[in-house]
Amino acid sequence: MSESKLAKRGLGRGLSALMADLDLDGPPEAKPIKDRTLVPIEQITANPDQPRRSFDPAALQELADSLRQRGVLQPLIVRKHPQDDGLYQIVAGERRWRAAQMAQLHELPVIIRDLSDNEVLEVAIIENIQRADLNAIEEAASFRQLMDRFGHTQEKLAEALNKSRSHIANLLRLLNLPDQVQDYVKDGRLSAGHARALITAENPAALARKIMDNGLSVRETEELVRKQGKTAAERPASKAARSRDKDADTRALESDLSAQLRMSVVIDHLDNGGGTMTISYRDLEQLDRLCQILAGGQ
Predict the structure, then answer these.
(1) Contact 71/99 with Cβ under 8 angstroms?
(2) Backbone angles phi, psi at 263, to 5 degrees
(3) CA–CA gap between residue 189 and residue 172 (Å, rounded)
């Protein structure tokens, strides 16, 4: 199946069935799996396009100890290796595979599926989203990758991943923050709640440093952003005045477009029924991406 067809089909029946196989939210022993196969561990290889690059050594050792005692209850999802008939490539479950190697297990239960390269990447991203230790920026970037590469909408993702559309939309808006602020969230120095409060701030990076230096709570951060907004509104600027008069639908549309483009979008309605839409780019790379979008390259 071509990538263009994949992008249009949404989350198809095959992927939905695979999501059911993963069943990452429930205890594996509660769901008997009939089509599992035991495969020697040396015949299983990692997926080179796996979006997850780092595995915590302590957590892997803890899992290895558990696998040594209880065995592997949740089978890996694999496909036949595209270049080597004697091997299998991991679609989902690389963490278990790594821990099983540490536990010196000789074979692993697997479910073999026939999947294209695009479907493998799609499932790997979705499995990555299911991680308990994923921070808000990493989760948002995974949503964005599914939308940009495979054409999924927020509604489709919400349905397939059992998450609310507002949860996905709110996380995507975090990608509008400066890279420095996003790094603070990745490092755990700022919570997702702090970051959400900074989305509408005039200088989120400076405010982020103030929050960390003073140990401000999320509520205190929200109040700080509100005060900053009031100060900006007192300046003689027509944009700020019009922003206060915008209806909820216009503000929601601005937020959705900003999340979709990963750039600031401002919509101003005029009395004659027309209006303007302003898209602000941060650097030349963003400008180039915007030009590609407008030219139909995405």
Answers:
(1) no
(2) -140, 160
(3) 19
Q: Which domains does the chain have, with CATH numbers?
A: 3-132 (3.90.1530.30), 238-298 (no CATH)
Residue bearing tokens 């996905």: 168
Q: Which of 3, 29, 62, 94 is catalytic?
A: 94
Cα–Cα distance for residue pair 187/88, rounded to 1 Å: 35
pLDDT digits (tens, 9 = 90+) for 189-222: 999 999 999 988 888 999 999 999 999 999 999 8
**47, two tokens:** 């997926």
Cα–Cα distance, 94 to 107 (Å, whole number):
14
The Cβ-side half-sphere exposure at 143, using a 13 Å CA radius, reads 32
* Model pTM score: 0.60
281-296: pLDDT as tens digits: 777 777 878 888 887 7
**Is 42 in the active site?**
no
